[in-house]
Write a structure and sequence with these properties.
Elements lengths: L14 H10 L6 H11 L4 E4 L6 H15 L11 E4 L3 H14 L7 E4 L5 H10 L3 E4 L1 H9 L10 E5 L1 H4 L5 H8 L7 E6 L4 H9 L5 E4 L10 E7 L5 H11 L5 E4 L3 H13 L4 E4 L5 H13 L4 E4 L14 E4 L7 H7 L9 E7 L4 H11 L4 E3 L62 H7 L21
Parallel strand pairs: 1-6, 1-7, 2-4, 2-5, 3-4, 5-6, 8-13, 8-14, 9-11, 9-12, 10-11, 12-13
Helix pairs in contact: 2-3, 3-4, 6-8
Length: about 475
């Protein structure tokens, strides 16, 4: 049966799920859903890869909902029977909202926990009973250690954006969680990108998994047009103002490199008459949600973000993504650009490239196996050409290259505060003042410095979720 003739009915989904899908406007399954849902429904472990924006949440969410709806929960307090781990708060909210929409006619409780929000409401939700728990690892560990989150009834474990979840910075937390989840379970991993080392790590805790890859690794939607403008770094902001003024009716997502830089850029754009808001790891969840709501409602036309927004933001029909700074890790380009051109829509990706970033552009082009056309804007010609053989900066003002094992030198391990998915310090925690990163302690020992052993803090990459 070809994709054109497939429907959600032919995939074997229940009438309650089909009814909810019809009401949400979903009529035809995407390729990743066609390939993954039958394996998941059959109970297989699954390693699934697909481009960002192609429906991975439904690919694991629909069979998960169907499985739990057919089973009678054990007697006693309802403990999570499905656990979905995600790297960022925004993605946690998006996944939870989607599951609630798909399962609106099922009697299943979906609860979300992440840092940057109060502990007590989450504790109350856990006490009332949970069927599906969507969580960021740091806050989940806090609830596990306090005894409020018990994972001994988990039947299905999902890692969404698995390449980042299994990046060495998250691996210690993931392993601690895996130690508390029953070994007899179904494990589903989904992501847009899978490095060979990350795939090997994933297979360590999966049982004879099926593998589905509906598009080549590190590819992006064909509906996205890619362009680059060569410009001196000192004139990037001026060029950005010029470009945004020309596209005065479009919503635009602008990616920067650092949290402070994004704040400053948003303020400078606003001063130029371009309503902008910033979102990054140092902002509280309420601040991040407020900025996102302003952007989605159109009250702020421009959202300036670090890579915290590269995954988990679902903005319908976003026409343009601009890289004010190129990402230090080429794979992050895929996730940034995946915010546009979603679900078959057209999109545009524009990168501002300084002469110092030629090597970064070369990394991206090699990963994509495609050239990105580059030109100059009159009046903004760079002082020297952009050469693809330019050495890649070692720190780049806050980023670094990925090491062979998937880690990032100098990156603070796991999730962080302020603004990360770590929780406020609870009574009984060791130490005083700012909470330490438990993932870092598990990975690097008690003497690990914040910036990573032997690495200057200036080289630390912004990984706060």
């Amino acid at each position: 049966m070809t994709l054109e003739t497939q429907s959600f009915e032919t995939l074997g989904l229940s009438p309650a799920l089909l009814r909810a899908l019809a009401e949400t406007g979903y009529t035809t399954p995407t390729p990743i859903q066609v390939e993954a849902i039958p394996f998941a429904l059959a109970g297989h472990d699954l390693l699934g890869g697909a481009q960002t924006g192609t429906g991975k949440t439904a690919a694991f969410g629909l069979p998960l909902l169907q499985r739990l709806s057919k089973e009678t929960p054990p007697k006693g307090p309802r403990k999570p029977r499905a656990l979905i781990l995600v790297p960022t708060r925004e993605l946690a909210v998006q996944v939870s909202d989607n599951l609630k929409a798909y399962g609106k006619y099922l009697r299943l409780n979906v609860t979300t926990i992440f840092g940057g929000a109060g502990m007590q409401p989450q504790i109350d939700n856990l006490r009332r009973g949970v069927d599906i728990l969507v969580a960021c690892p740091g806050r989940l560990l806090d609830h596990m250690e306090s005894g409020h989150a018990k994972l001994d009834a988990v039947e299905v474990l999902v890692l969404d954006e698995a390449d980042r979840m299994l990046d060495m910075g998250f691996l210690p937390s993931i392993k601690r969680i895996l130690a508390r989840v029953p070994k007899q379970r179904q494990t589903l991993l989904f992501s847009a990108t899978f490095e060979a080392q990350i795939r090997a790590l994933a297979l360590e805790f999966m049982h004879d998994p099926k593998q589905v890859q509906v598009a080549a690794n590190n590819t992006i939607a064909e509906t996205i047009v890619h362009r680059a403008h060569a410009v001196d770094n000192a004139r990037k902001r001026d060029l950005l103002v010029e470009l945004l003024s020309r596209r005065h009716t479009d919503q635009v997502l602008v990616f920067g490199k650092t949290k402070h830089g994004c704040n400053r850029l948003a303020e400078q754009l606003a001063e130029s008459g371009l309503p902008s808001v910033a979102i990054h790891g140092n902002k509280s969840q309420a601040q991040r949600q407020k900025a996102l709501n302003l952007f989605k409602s159109g009250k702020a036309r421009i959202l300036v973000a670090t890579d915290v927004a590269a995954r988990g933001l679902d903005i319908p029909n976003l026409p343009l993504v601009i890289n004010h700074d190129l990402p230090m890790v080429a794979e992050d380009y895929v996730h940034r650009i995946g915010r546009t051109g979603r679900n078959g829509a057209s999109g545009e990706a524009l990168s501002l490239v300084s002469p110092e970033e030629g090597g970064l552009l070369r990394q991206i082009q090699r990963m994509l196996k495609a050239d990105i056309a580059m030109d100059t804007v009159a009046g903004f010609e760079p002082s020297r050409p952009v050469r693809l053989d330019t050495p890649i900066p070692k720190n780049g003002g806050g980023g670094q290259r990925r090491q062979p094992g998937g880690g990032r030198p100098g990156a603070r391990m796991g999730e962080q505060k302020p603004g990360g998915d770590r929780a406020p310090r609870m009574p009984g925690n060791r130490g005083h003042g700012k909470p330490a990163d438990r993932g870092a302690r598990a990975h690097a020992g008690p003497k690990q410095h914040r910036g990573g052993a032997g690495k200057p803090q200036g080289a630390r990459r912004d990984t706060r979720a």
